[in-house]
Amino acid sequence: MITRIEIDGFKTFQRFSADLRPFVAVVGPNATGKSNLFDALKFFSRLAQVDVRQAMQELRGEPEELFRQTPSGIQTIMRFAIEVLLPIRGIDDFGTTFETPAQRLRYEIAIEIRESPHGIFIIHEDCRVIRAEDDRMAFRTLEKISRSGRKTPFLETERDTHGRARVFTIRQDGVAESGTSKRGNPLQLPAAEASRSALSTIATSEFRHLYALKKLVAGPQFLEINPSEARKANDRFEDKRLKSNASNLAASLAEIQRLSMTENRPAGAIADISADLAMLIPQVKSVRVLDNAKNREYSFDVEVRDGVSFSSRVISDGTIRLLALLVVIDDPNREGILCFEEPENGVHEGRIPELINLLRDATELQDETGDYFQVLLNTHSPAVMRALRSDEVLFADMVRSIPADNKYSQSRTRMRRIAPDKGLFDDEHHLYPAKVEELLRNKAGGI
């Protein structure tokens, strides 16, 4: 999971930082940059998989528009940093098991847009362990964190005499502190005009900590459900992990049932999904996975209290949306990070506390690898806000400031936590409960 994120120079973010817990909701009015945080995470995720241009083109707007806009022009460098809690073991794509003795890592990356030579380049990367004395994680884990005394970075940027990036050095988890292992010297990649991150080149657990980091960074699910696509039947060979638009919802349901079914519980975890959907939509009785052997495809239907079943083709958009969300949080093998906007859509206001409880409960226990499933929400709903605990909230707003050397004001996104009382109030970083209520009242219908 990600325990801290820092952003500077991306969209509306300027020297931004936020400490994260397993369950966090970004709450605030529209046009305050709530979605920009998800865009930053999405961009960060894609940088671990593809080149920087492709990562930018998958977001809204032109690549140049992703850099922070100021009255004097664009900020030419954007910087990101995350601090993470890694699972203590894993399996790579080739079936090799590995362990990560250092669960706490910090990873940094910086990107520059240049006029000569024209392009967008990676100019800095760094990954190293977080020592216990330097750790500022905002919550206490249930299990003891595994740490390492390693002093050299797993990944760092070496510079020339002019301070320009020369090479990215990747060190193995070898027998020597230098990073040299039985297989030879550290890997070095040219950095002068790097168009993709060094992290994106890690393909196996040969570099086990970097591989675990890449898997975490590349793995978040950004649910942007398209009910029209989610209703469709799926070929048996369709991907089983739920896609962003939920177009493989039927295949995901079938896979969850296959992996969790037992002789005494033939529906497996589908029974949990049915129970939770019925709690949120009382008319619902159960969800059924349908296997059409003739067409070799999966579909599903929903049975209501009076015994009538409705195929996925006629189920309401709100029901489809909630079902897709439950597929993620009720999956016994859930892992990684879920990012979900406006969870209140399709839910009766009186049932929102139950939905928030379901999301919270999915994040509260560490799995056997010492990892947490993490849920990040964003919302402008007062009903969601009221269902949250104070330590789960990041309150977003847009603030204007006038730099000392500039006569023009600049806007930036700010996200503040809720302090227990006014005595602990720091206007830049915290709100106290009474102030939150005031903002909610003033923004009635808009927040």
TrEMBL record:
Cite a single GO BP annotation. Answer: double-strand break repair
Query: Which is a Pfam family this sequence falls into?
Result: AAA_21
Source domain of life is: Bacteria
Q: Which residues form the ATPase AAA-type core domain?
A: 23-385
Which Gene Ontology molecular-function terms are recorded? ATP binding; ATP hydrolysis activity
SUPFAM superfamilies linked to this entry:
P-loop containing nucleoside triphosphate hydrolases (SSF52540)
UniProt xrefs under InterPro entries:
ATPase_AAA_core, P-loop_NTPase, RecF-like
Protein name according to UniProt: DUF2813 domain-containing protein
Q: What is the lineage of its organism?
A: Bacteria, Pseudomonadati, Pseudomonadota, Alphaproteobacteria, Hyphomicrobiales
